[in-house]
Structure formats: C-alpha cells, structure tokens
Write a structure and sequence with these properties.
By secondary structure, the protein is α/β, with parallel strands linked by helices. It contains nine helices and 18 strands. It has helices at residues 16-32, 55-65, 74-78, 92-104, 119-132, 146-156, 197-212, 331-345, 353-372, and strands spanning 2-11, 36-37, 42-51, 70-71, 85-88, 108-111, 136-138, 163-171, 216-224, 229-231, 237-239, 245-252, 257-263, 274-280, 283-287, 292-296, 320-321, 376-377. Strands 17-16-15-14-8-13-12-9-18 form a nine-stranded mixed beta sheet. Strands 1, 2, 3, 4, 5, 6 and 7 form a seven-stranded mixed beta sheet that branches. Helix 4 packs parallel to helix 5.
Amino acid sequence: MTRTTVRIAMNGVTGRMGYRQHLVRSLLALREQGGLDLGDGTVIWPEPVLVGRSAHKLRTLAERHGLEHWSTDLDTVLGDDSIDIYFDAQVTAAREEAVQKAIAAGKHLYVEKPTATGLAGALELARSARDAGIKHGVVQDKLFLPGLRKLRRLVEGGFFGRTLSVRGEFGYWVFEGDWQEAQRPSWNYRAEDGGGIAADMFPHWEYVLHELFGPVKTVQAQVTTHIPRRWDESGTPYDATADDAAYGIFELAGGIVAQLNSSWAVRVHRDELVEFQVDGTEGSAVAGLRGCRVQHRSSTPKPVWNPDIPASERFREQWQEVPDNAEFDNGFKAQWELFLRHVVRDEPWRWDLMAGARGVQLAELGLRSSAEGRRLDVPELTL
C-alpha cells in the first residue's frame, strides 16, 4: 500500500461549518477510515494544517484531534512548499484576498461559497486560478446529499417526463439572541460583513437548478429583513442590516419555472429543513436532505375541491418512498473525496471557481431584482 500525503491549509476551521463539516466529518473522517483508498494500492492521506486568527482556538482544536500543525500566520503557511491545497471557510468578506494569496503561492484551491462578495471579484478569482494553472474547486454540498442524489436518479431516468416546475422551501427560525442564543453567527445578519440570506443561499440554488434541471435564464426576487434587531455572541444588541429572507422565481432553460423561498425567520412545518417539489407530466417528487418521495402519473389521485366537507384523503400517504439503493456518505466528505482524487490523479472535476462565479452572479442579480422591482435576465458568463 502506497500512502500519498496531501497537506491542506484549512482557513476558517474555528467556525461552525469549517469545523463540523469540513474538518471533523470530512478530512478527519477520512483519516479514521485509513485514508482515501484509490483502489489500486494507493491511499490519499489528508494532513490538515489549521489556520485562523485565534491561537487559543486553533491550539485547542489541534489538541482535541491529535493534529500537529496550526498557525495564525497565513502568509507563512502559504509560503510552505509542502502545502498542496488551500481551503477557505472564512467569512465571505475575508475570502477573496486570502484566495488570491493562495493562487499567487501556486496552491490548489478548494473554497466555500460564495467565492466573493461580488461578481467582479468572483470572476477575477476564476481568471487568476486559470492563468496560474492550478486546480480549483467550490463546495457545492447539496448535490451530494442523499435526497438530491435520489432526485438526480429520477431526472436521469426520465421519471418526470417533461419537467414543469420546481418549488423549494428552505429555512428555520434563528433566534434573535436575546432570550435564547442564536444558532447562526451574527455576521450573517450584517451586510457590511458579507451577510445576507440571498448571498448565502442563491449560490446553492444556482448549482442545484443548473445541475439537475438546466441553467437559470431569468430571476425575479424579493428580499427583506424581517427581524431588524438581533443580539450578537456577547449579548450586545445590533441592527440587522442584511436580508434574512429571500423569495425568488427563476425561469430555467426549457421553460421550467422554479420558486424557491429561503428564510431565517420561518418556523418549520415540513419533514426536513429543505425540501424541493418537482412536478412533471409523468410524475412528481419531493426531495429533502435525505428522503425522496414520488407519485407517478398512473397513481395520481383525483381530488375534487369541496371546502364544505373535511378532506377524506391522506395525501401524504399516496406517495412512495424512493429506496436508497446505495450507501450515502456525508455530502461534504463525498465532494472532498472527488476533489482529492482530482488533485492527485487529475480525475474529472466540474465544480470550479467559474461555477462558483455563477452562484455569486445569481445572488447579485437577485438583490438587484428586489431593489429595482423587476425581472432580470441572467447572462451566460465567460472569462
């Protein structure tokens, strides 16, 4: 067995997503299983190097997980020739500068979305990475969730016939922080720090729609700040300057209409925190994070509108669960595995910084659509 060590500078691992999903549930999980087995006697062994601003937090994480290397000096880490990959899960406002430094240092890139605070910056990152000849990827985790993998299976199997529409609901109540601690960081609700649910979630919706149903052609959105006052991690009140809800209508190639609601000010009355309903001429499906249910044309009931009597049908019971038919790993880990194979073996990869730029573009156009009160075209991007 040959072990190929890949050293990864991980910036932003003291944050919730960087720590839980990328460090613990992805790279450390890979190490716990003995590395990434390529099937030919070669194993990729990820070696995280923790990077951040707080020496105390980094030291604590390193000691907790038995890691040797951490640093508060990004420039020194990027100057280390043994570092193969730079990963960024910082707050969005800090990402662009750090990623440009990593490109200049010749490191391969794997970054969270959105890749930049604006389209111009996102395109510049993609251009710089292309010109530097490095490998680069953007986290697009929703594609690797069990529910959406089942949905992709239905799409590729022709289950829907002609797809008509997609409706999505995402969100939950994020506590204001006064009488119960907020479960999301306060910067999410400050526009000056890169916060806002449109900037956060529209990039997700772009790649989900693009990959499963087709490119987004137009967007019409309404964004708002439902909760204007919140309390930060220290209990200090602050004005929420970023949007906490975004309601979008998207026209896709082929005339498919998608309606997606995103909100941190909604109480959940559905089976999962995100659900997509897809309706087609031959059948429909409802997919969440893990589950997926279908109703084929042949088994579709025939409801009759009559508000004067109680509903006699249990509509949810008329759907059929899609079987797993496979082992589903953590979605973040699954994409990490593909990116590591791409770096080491040059295996195919399509979720690059240009894909990330499309997400930033859709968020930017969504915010502009809301501000101008009109539907906007989504131009095809080129470098």
